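<instruction>
Derive structure tokens from the sequence
<entry> Chain with its tokenised backbone below:
===
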Amino acid sequence: MDRQREWELSDWKRLGRAFAAQREAAGYTQVTAAEALGVSRTPVQAIERGRQSNGQPFTKITQTMRAYAQLVGWTADSPARILGGEEPEPATQPVSGTADESTSDLPPAVDRELRSGRTLDHTVVNLGSHEDDDTRIIVVLKGSDDMTEAELDEAWRQWRKTRRRLQAIPGESDTSRDS
């Protein structure tokens, strides 16, 4: 975390230029990259500009940046490497936004989110009656690979509260109500 505080605006701009160059080399426009990431064009523009969309400097590497890195053929930790003055690390298996390369029938943005970051927990909430057990909500709790213990504790605190609310939805839950 201390390392992130040391990153200056010029580091974020250098990261943005690297993203733009790699995106173009990978054959994406800002629009097609945004579609593959499941976001609007605004976050892609902000990342490439090196400033948040509200004009404020970035203060941390976001999940969208990690997913963007994977989309253009880098590892998820490449943004941190670039901010630290190193070269991005090529991914051994680049993430593609094209549906025909995916073995999943999930939308590409959902598939990408499920493959990125660290899976912390999940729950399944059935919405249907006993005759209709196919209607359900599936929630996967994801976190960044470099979460601090304090960030992890806060995520768990929020998740426990949210999971209790989800499980209170009429229908039966596939997970126990304890914890």
Summary: The beta strands are 118-126, 136-143.
